[in-house]
Amino acid sequence: MKIGFIGLGRMGGNMVRRLLSRGVSVVAWDPDQAARAAVETAGAATADSLEALAGMLSGQDGPRAVWLMVPAGKIVDDSLAALVPLLVKGDIIIDGGNSNWKDSRRRGEELAARGIEFVDCGTSGGVWGLENGYCLMYGGSREAVEILRPVFDGLAPDKGHLHCGPVGSGHFVKMVHNGIEYGMMQAYAEGFELMEKSPFEIDAAAVASVWREGSVVRSWLLDLVARALAENPEMEGIAPWVADSGEGRWTVEAGVEFGVPVPVISQALFARFASRNDDSYALKLLAAMRDQFGGHGTRKTP
User: What is the pTM for the complete model shown?
Assistant: First the structure.
């Protein structure tokens, strides 16, 4: 099978390399010429425009398929606006980024009206996906996902991809996946900080390592904790500032919308917000209130 691939960043470029290593032909495009050259060296054909990419996919049996690997939001809509006029009825577009599931449903409806299949594919694996494979959660018609099976088989490890339902379901499942990830990461971080603050000289790296062997809290995230602690046990040079991709927020919003309590995920999200506020007005006011009723005094900033 041959597939078009748009977006050759750190994750997209590795996905192209993995597909090539598993016998899937790729025609790739990215506005960055260096990114195109890098995958060309790996064996991909590259196009210097979207028009060229669409033309290079023509002539094969069956519909053309184009995978978008770009950031969520306006850039997805802009990419679709540029790409759709180059496609014909029956062609397939896959959004493999972290789009909001509601946007994916809207895009699926708009493309269906033009006879173009849309598959929303939540993709997990990060920088380790090239070696380990990518876990894929996708939504779309059965006909479209069956055509794409060689691509999913190439990207994912054995039993590592799932047709979740109609358009929108793939990104919904990936959103929940990332919300759970927030909670797991927060729990690990809090637990290891508790050990670090204890009166015992606990070797955190050793703890992480032993927990990987038979413990009920073992996971790939714990593997990464162990790796990070082995490399930098004191976390030297790392700022206590944690970003969020947006999917944690969407998970909390979905909990409100569907009446499902998600307190752990919510608190993990808020903890990330708090990490970015070194000069917190709220914490200053909290200290001032405590002083007002308790006379504890307030610590002055230097």
Answer: 0.92
300 tagged catalytic: no
Neighbouring-strand partners of residue 6? 29, 68
Q: CB of 266 within 8 A of CB of 255?
A: yes
- At residue 270, φ and ψ (nearest 5 deg) are -65, -35
And the tokens for 46? 């590259």
Q: Which of 2, 117, 174, 247 is catalytic?
A: 174
In sequence order, what E strands does the chain have? 2-6, 25-29, 45-46, 65-68, 92-95, 117-124, 135-139, 161-165
Q: Using CA atoms, how far apart are residues 79 and 5, in angstroms rounded to an integer?
A: 12
CA atoms within 13 A of residue 223's CA, in its CB half-sphere? 4
Can 213 be counted among the known catalytic residues? no
Q: Which of 2, 117, 181, 247 is catalytic?
A: 181
226-241, pLDDT tens digit by residue?
A: 999 999 998 888 888 8
Tell me which residue has tokens 């032909």. Answer: 25
Residue 301, pLDDT > 70, answer no
The span from the CA of 185 to the CA of 2, in Å, is 38
Tens-place pLDDT, residues 22-57: 999 999 999 999 999 999 999 999 999 999 999 999
Instruction: List C-alpha distances in Å: 269 to 26, 173, 224, 256.
Output: 37, 18, 20, 14
Q: How many whole angstroms separate alpha carbon 196 and alpha carbon 202?
A: 7
Q: Which token pair is 167?
A: 């358009």
Residue-wise pLDDT tens digits, 138-170: 999 999 999 999 999 999 999 999 999 999 999
Q: Are 25 and 1 in contact (CB under 8 A)?
A: yes
Tens digit of each residue's pLDDT (9 = 90 or more) over 63-87: 999 999 999 999 999 999 999 999 9
Rg (CA), the chain: 23
Closest CA to 151 of 76, 93, 101, 201: 93
